[in-house]
Every structure is written in C-alpha cells, then in structure tokens.
Amino acid sequence: MSSAEPTAGHLVWRLAMKWRTAVDRALDPLGLTHAQYVVLSSLLALDRPSQRELADHTGLEALYVSKLARSLEASGFISRTRDAVDTRTVRLALTPHGLSTVEPAIELVRSLLDRLLEPLGDRTDALSRDLTALLAVPL
Fold first, then answer.
1. Which one, out of 22, 65, 82, 121, has a CA that is 20 to 30 A from the CA of 94?
2. Is residue 23 a part of any domain in this protein?
3. 42: closest CA among 17, 68, 63?
4. 50-83, pLDDT tens digit by residue?
5. Structural domain containing residue 110
C-alpha cells in the first residue's frame, strides 16, 4: 500500500466526521446537535436510565453526558431526578417536549442513514455485523 492510500483508520474517521456533520446539519432546524440527539433517542429506548447507564449505552464520556443532560433539562427536553434508593444517582427521562422533538428527529436521521447506506444494497446487514464486532474489541 502506498502512503497515498487511506488506511482503514483514516476511512473510519472520515466516515464518522461525514456522518456527524450530516446529522448536525439535518437536526439544526429542530434545535439539536448530534450528541443531543443521541441522548434523546437513547432515552426513548431506555427506561429512566442513570447518567452512568446512558453513558455506557451511548459510548459517550460520563462527564459529557452529565453536561448534555443539564443542558437538555434547561431546554425542557428531559427531566433529571434523584433515584429514590441511591440519591447519588440521577435518573433521566424525556419530557413531553423532548418526546415531540425526538420523534421527528429519529425520522430525519433514519432517512439520512438510508441515503448513506444505499450504495451497499443487501450488504448493510453484513456491515452492521462487522461494525458490531469491531466495537466489541477492547482497546
């Protein structure tokens, strides 16, 4: 391989940057960033997770999830409440405003993903399996 040919790592980074930029642009009219979308859409799938559980689910740093959660709470998208058993734990949930915002956001992102994956045709499932295997590799 010549030095001019991109490495797999470079291609993964470029694809991640392309995806993040495209999602940020698509979500801007809804007043969301890609990271905020990840939090909101994850809250739709999870049942009142703690900030730590949400960080583990999303792959985001716990400190960043905490910062995002405070911002999303201030904007009325989520509620943050202390756990009844362990008051050190903060539980997160979508508010009605958050739910009404994340549902169209999911459709936008789904449409964008369909466009991105269209060139793969029937190889999309194989790509998903490969990516899942790579994400499971401890680094």
1. 22
2. yes
3. 68
4. 999 999 999 999 999 999 999 999 999 999 999 8
5. 16-135
Q: What is the CATH number of the domain that holds 67?
A: 1.10.10.10
Strands (E), the chain: 78-82, 90-94
Residue 127 CB burial class (10 angstroms; 0-12, 13-18, ≥19): exposed
95: which 2 tokens? 């508010």
Domain count, the chain: 1
Report the distance separating Cα 89 and Cα 112, nearest Å: 35
CA angle 5, 10, 14 (to 5 degrees): 115
pTM: 0.88
The count of other CB atoms within 10 Å of the CB of residue 55 is 21
Q: Which residue has the tokens 């190889």?
A: 123
Residue 3 domain flag: no
- Eight-class DSSP state of 50: B
| Amino acid of residue 54 | L
The answer to whether the beta carbons of residues 51 and 86 sit under 8 Å apart is no
